[in-house]
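Deliverable D5.2: sample structural annotation.
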Amino acid sequence: MLTSLFRSQRAPLQRSLLSTSNRSLSSIVGIDLGTTNSCVAVMESGTPKVIENAEGQRTTPSVVAFSEDGTRHVGDVAKRQAVQNPENTLFATKRLIGRRFDDQVTQKDLKHLPYKVVKANNGDAWVEARGNTYSPSQVGAFVLTKMKETAEAYLGSTCKEAVVTVPAYFNDSQRQATKDAGKIANLEVKRIINEPTAAALAFGMDKNDGKVIAVYDLGGGTFDISILEISGGVFEVKATNGDTALGGEDIDLKLQDFLTREFKNSSGIDIMSDKGALQ
């Protein structure tokens, strides 16, 4: 999906996003800020390239953790210590971005998360780790900073601009929160692109002029569908729908509930309150 951000330069709309008279495309990175994993790509000799991180992986876990001494870890390192440090390991915070604390979806997630979700002064859902509170935008910024550093290590130059993907159903508040995350990470988000549009571009659908296509997107936090109409290489979203609580994380939770019930029935031990075991 991510490489489609750059293939989209064929279309007039995307050309206006990714090019200027005195700036090369390689100065702008494309970032897929996902619920479970994130990745970053750049243009290289006219071809999009997904960059490997320091661990040699093309994707980086969207996980942020804080150790006892206050050190912040992002990505694989944060994920590896989650079992020993569940209450201070933040994951799937994209599900909270732009949401109110009293939101039904937020309240449902609270029951399964090992870390604390608190109500901010403005009523938004924030998270807590090591006694400090963070907005979902701040946590997203930590991940974006990691992706920015990954790109800079590969390019050997500073990255200041990015194109970021978001779910098609994201409302204005959630899109603005994503832009805010970029600003905190010292990245100017030049454009927010819908994930279904990026997926369609990745499969070269922009060549199917005059067609109407359906794109299903099963992600870490959601499952949605978008109906796109293609005209002149430009995608217009005609309709979108989905379930904000039907993604990989939700499937994991259903399996977790089933296994913990079976374990309780066979052993008489309830491990639902053991946050370390649930990791």
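Annotation notes: The longest strand covers residues 234-243. The chain is about 30% helix and 30% strand.
The annotation will be released with the project's public dataset once the embargo ends.
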